[in-house]
């Protein structure tokens, strides 16, 4: 699929014209085991189905593959159930509603109940840094970690107390690894805001926090300007260059790279890259591990796949050797949350294995507690979260993260 050419010719999201979204409800373990037959480089899953957790999957299918997909549903014994008839029309309606809200809030200051463009986010973060540069209590730094393929600054935030020592344990929060999952970004910024609140001094007194609010800035901007459901970066390192740009950042880590739910085709939405760590975004995470390996106590990847807290492995249909500790901490996290979240091994809760993920990479390299927190779905789909839901979600995720930090104390 030639994304660059299409996006230059068509209006925003018009590439999705005629695409349908199918509900995929698996009833048996045998169907789950054979789920692979419903996968293709051109089929984009908004959410994977899971028999164990009674989760209905959502598959976005292009017109070229309607017949193929419906034949595979029949082969697997799954009923045909279309939830969205035309993705372009659906996205157009969603954006029309959002624009009406924005027109009514033109003078609104930066807050944690809205979605912002990357430059606005950077400006806000740098404003926070300036506000705390003379603080005697809080050490707040914005670290520049290089430039993206399209020349945007890739940054992360360090927050701790001024009584910091090099030996403080570290908690890392990663957001925006999948650029279409906008909800993760205000959720991460809300965590930053909480850490600056004196009520939570114990967390910065006892930990150094690293928050990456937008791990994939180029992809995130592209979801605002061109394709709302884009899942990759915008680099052009593959043999197809600008014809099929981008790498799925959460398939580019050196953990069973390119084996499961990953593709060697640059045109695929799950393209794992020309090699592991080919992308500046994944190299940022690796550099944080390399320089802080013995101090990282908790790594959280914020995502939006359907209401889970999960722990490794995702590349393997098994838990890691320390899963009892991970499960017990996960139980404390979901018990603190107001909404219902499922807990389990990532490959089970997602209903599928996946190679090259950030949390598996961190766990493989000695970080004991690594979790994906996947937002509970809203409305007809599991991707586009209405603005009015942001605060509720962000506060719930903070409950889970703060409980995890409390337990680590």
From TrEMBL:
Peptidase M14 domain span: 114-408
Annotated keywords: Carboxypeptidase, Disulfide bond, Hydrolase, Metal-binding, Metalloprotease, Protease, Signal, Zinc
Entry-linked SUPFAM superfamilies: Protease propeptides/inhibitors (SSF54897), Zn-dependent exopeptidases (SSF53187)
Requisite cofactors: Zn(2+)
GO cellular component: extracellular space
GO biological processes: proteolysis
Keyword Metal-binding: yes
Protein's name according to its UniProt entry: Peptidase M14 domain-containing protein
Species whose genome carries this gene: Parnassius mnemosyne
């Amino acid at each position: 699929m030639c994304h660059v050419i299409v996006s230059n010719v068509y209006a925003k999201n018009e590439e999705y014209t005629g695409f349908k979204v199918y509900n995929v409800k698996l009833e048996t373990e045998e169907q789950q085991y054979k789920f692979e037959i419903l996968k293709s480089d051109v089929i984009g899953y908004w959410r994977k189905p899971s028999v164990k957790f009674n989760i209905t999957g959502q598959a976005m299918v292009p017109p070229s593959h309607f017949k193929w997909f419906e034949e595979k549903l029949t082969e697997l014994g799954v009923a045909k159930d279309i939830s969205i008839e035309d993705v372009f029309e659906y996205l157009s309606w969603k954006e029309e509603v959002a624009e009406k809200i924005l027109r009514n809030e033109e003078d609104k200051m930066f807050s944690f109940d809205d979605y912002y463009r990357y430059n606005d986010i950077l400006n806000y973060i740098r404003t926070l840094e300036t506000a705390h540069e003379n603080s005697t209590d809080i050490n707040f730094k914005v670290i520049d970690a290089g430039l993206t393929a399209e020349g945007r600054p890739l940054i992360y935030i360090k927050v701790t107390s001024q009584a910091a020592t090099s030996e403080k344990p570290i908690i890392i929060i990663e957001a925006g690894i999948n650029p279409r999952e906008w909800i993760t970004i205000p959720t991460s910024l809300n965590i930053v805001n909480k850490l600056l609140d004196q009520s939570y001094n114990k967390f910065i007194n006892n930990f150094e926090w690293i928050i990456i609010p937008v791990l994939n800035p180029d992809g995130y901007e592209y979801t605002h300007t061109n394709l709302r459901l884009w899942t990759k970066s915008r680099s052009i390192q593959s043999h197809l260059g600008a014809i099929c740009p981008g790498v799925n950042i959460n398939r580019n880590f050196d953990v069973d790279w390119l084996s499961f739910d990953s593709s060697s085709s640059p045109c695929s939405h799950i393209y794992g890259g020309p090699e592991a760590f080919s992308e500046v975004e994944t190299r940022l995470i690796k550099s944080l591990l390399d320089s802080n390996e013995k101090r990282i106590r908790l790594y959280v990847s914020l995502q939006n796949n359907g209401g889970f807290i999960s722990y490794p492995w995702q590349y393997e249909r098994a838990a890691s050797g320390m899963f009892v500790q991970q499960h017990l901490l996960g139980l404390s996290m979901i018990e603190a949350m107001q909404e219902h979240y499922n807990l389990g091994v990532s490959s089970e809760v997602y209903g599928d294995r996946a190679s090259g993920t950030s949390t598996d990479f961190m766990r493989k390299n000695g970080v004991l507690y690594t979790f994906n927190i996947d937002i509970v779905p809203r409305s007809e789909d599991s991707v586009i979260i209405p603005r009015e839901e942001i605060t509720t979600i962000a506060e719930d995720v903070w409950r889970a993260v703060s409980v995890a930090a409390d337990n680590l104390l």
